[in-house]
């Protein structure tokens, strides 16, 4: 039993890391939706999302054809992932409610955590596929530059404000 719990905890940590890492891969650049938090990615009305995409396209030197294909990839991903994000928000809310109730048993909390982890894993797989599609339409030079830009953005983030609470 303890081995299974350790494996579940390890799986949860790995999937959470994969989801957070893949989310950072396109953070601020593509039209990706998050977990309900508002940021520059979701500010399309004032040009935030479009502006970030255009900035990335300019930095990478994307052709008009590449821009069109990239937008199609991002739009398709956003549409495809919307139900997963909605489910993830719901399941996280349910997990928080269980934890805050004070009366939930360990098994119920673990079961709900497993649901959250499974959704996070599904999103990580979808984001990785979207990332592969985007990188596939780039030239080798553009792909290398994109990976360097993504790494620089990830390195410059520092600890998340959520973890400082």
Describe the secondary structure blueprint for this structure.
Layout: H1 2-25, H2 48-60, H3 64-101, H4 106-136, H5 140-157
Helix pairs in contact: 1-4, 3-4
In short, what is this structure?
The protein has 165 residues and is mainly α. The chain contains five helices and no strands. It has a domain of 73 residues: Four Helix Bundle (Hemerythrin (Met), subunit A).
Q: Characteristics of this structure?
A:
signal; 5 helices; mainly alpha; Four Helix Bundle (Hemerythrin (Met), subunit A); 165 residues
- Per the CATH scheme, the topology name of the domain at 65-137 is Four Helix Bundle (Hemerythrin (Met), subunit A)
Mean pLDDT: 77
What value does the Rg take, in angstroms? 18 Å
Strand content: under 5%
Distance between the termini: 32 Å
What is the structural class? Answer: mainly alpha
- Count of helices? 5
Q: Mind summarizing the main beta sheet?
A: none
CATH-level-2 architecture of the domain at 65-137 = Up-down Bundle
General shape: elongated
Helix content percent band: over 70%
Secondary-structure element string: HHHHH
Q: What is the C-level CATH assignment of the domain at 65-137?
A: Mainly Alpha
How many β-strand stretches? Answer: 0
- Spans of at least 5 consecutive residues whose pLDDT stays below 50 are 19-46
Keywords: Periplasm, Signal
Protein name: Spy/CpxP family protein refolding chaperone
Subcellular location: Periplasm
Organism: Geomonas anaerohicana
């Amino acid at each position: 039993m303890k081995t299974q719990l350790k494996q579940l905890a390890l799986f949860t940590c790995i999937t959470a890391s994969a989801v957070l890492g893949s989310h950072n891969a396109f953070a601020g650049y593509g039209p990706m939706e998050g977990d309900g938090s508002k940021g520059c990615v979701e500010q399309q009305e004032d040009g935030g999302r479009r502006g970030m995409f255009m900035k990335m396209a300019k930095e990478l030197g994307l052709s008009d054809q590449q821009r069109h294909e990239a937008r199609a990839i991002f739009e398709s991903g956003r549409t495809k992932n919307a139900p997963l994000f909605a489910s993830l928000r719901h399941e996280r809310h349910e997990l928080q409610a269980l934890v805050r109730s004070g009366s939930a048993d360990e098994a119920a909390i673990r079961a709900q955590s497993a649901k959250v982890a499974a959704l996070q894993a599904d999103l990580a797989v979808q984001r990785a596929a979207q990332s592969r599609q985007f990188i596939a339409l780039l030239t080798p030079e553009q792909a290398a530059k994109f990976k360097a830009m993504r790494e620089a953005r990830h390195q410059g983030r520092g600890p998340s404000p959520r973890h400082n609470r």
